[in-house]
Amino acid sequence: MPLSLLLTLSLVPAWTAPAKTAAWTVAATDTTANFRAVSAGGGKVCWASGSKGTFARTLDGKTWKTGQVKGAETAEFRSIVAFGRDSAVMLAIGDGAASQVWRTDDGGKSWTRTFRNPDARVFYDALAFWDRDHGLAFGDPVDNRIPILATEDGGRTWSRLDSDIPPAEAGEAAFAASGRCLALAGSSDAWIVTGGGAARVFRSRDRGRSWTVAPTPLVPLTGSSGLFGVLPIGREAFAVGGDYESDDEPGYLLASRDDGRTWPLVYRPAGLREAAIRVLGGFLLVGSSGTDLSTDGGKTWRAIPNPGALHTAALAGGTVWAVGEKGLIARLSG
Predict the structure, then answer these.
(1) How many CB atoms sit inside 10 A of residue 131's CB?
(2) Residue 305: how many CB atoms within 10 A of its CB?
């Protein structure tokens, strides 16, 4: 079925660069850290996070300033949620105590660690929020179960949920590549995508307390391939992926129009894609090997060369920002 049939029709015009002339323009930064996550904070505000405990922020939609979290200089911040110009929450990934959550309320001048993983077996992958108070984080399976954390106070405290979640398959895990393997929608919906031993989509309708899981047609898989990002839009949802060790292999775009029950493969981009975001009339797919833009609801796609390895993108104040390796932050312009 055409992907255009899957798009909701109520997209708000927010990015209007012509598809034929769209290109990435690199913004200046003063860091060589690898950026892995980005989040719009309202208006022109946008935050990014990455390696070496690094974060970055723009207030004017033009210039970026970077900083480093004191006490987390070796942290790999792979997930970030911005609440405005002053407040943001970041997740650092890693085994055991390396998985941490940090929060700032003064624009990054100071940060408070609000969670340090006490379980040496758990590796947390991503966090996301429904609103300024309520959010989730999740990790790779332990004893065949995905661990779920919840917060009800903006990430200042976290508790482990006793979730009713289907067991993971052998080798199944998430890719903590771009912070997009977890997405929250509406007031209580949550989505998780996986890869490795199985590429599946987990779905919760009650803020992570109970889950269902749906298979996808992505077989066979390797430990480095599967789904990397998920984008829910009402009763429709989209998932992207590929193989991070074989970037010459085509990537994946899957689309579900039946509330996440089935996931047909609808497009094969030229390489791994780690994130999908909405733009006027369609989608932008971003990954380390390239970008794909559709402004006609998915009928046609245009490949946009990357200025370097990009991992994810966000729409902030009418500007599309993408982040990637070696301090790379880029703006999509016409």
Answers:
(1) 10
(2) 9
pLDDT, tens digit, for every residue of 46-79? 999 999 999 999 999 999 999 999 999 999 999 9
Q: Is the pTM of this model over 0.90?
A: yes
Query: What CATH number does the domain containing 272 carry?
Result: 2.130.10.10
Q: How many domains, in total, are found in the chain? A: 1
How would you write the chain as a 3-class SS string? CCHHHHCCCCCCCCCCCCCCCCEEEEECCCCCCCEEEEEECCCCCEEEEECCCEEEEECCCCCCEEEECCCCCCCCEEEEEECCCCCEEEEECEEHHHCEEEEECCCCCCCEEEEECCCCCCEEEEEEECCCCCEEEEECCECCECCEEEECCCCCCCEECCCECCCCCCCEECCCCCCCCEEEECCCEEEEECEECCCEEEEECCCCCECEEEECCCCCCCCCEEEEEEEEECCEEEEEEEECCCCCCCCEEEEECCCCCCCCEEECCCCCCCEEEEECCEEEEEECCEEEEECCCCCCCEEECCCCCEEEEEEECCEEEEEECCCCEEEEEC
Residue 126: name the closest of 171, 172, 173 by CA.
173
Q: Looking at per-residue confidence, does 6 or 163 come out higher? A: 163
Question: Residue 73's Cα: distance from chain center in Å?
Answer: 22
**Residue carrying structure tokens 């029709």:** 9
Residue 6 has φ and ψ, to the nearest 5°, of -90, -15
Structure confidence at residue 14 (pLDDT): 47
pLDDT at 16 over 70: no
* Cβ atoms 111, 89 nearer than 8 A: no
Domain that holds residue 48: 3-333
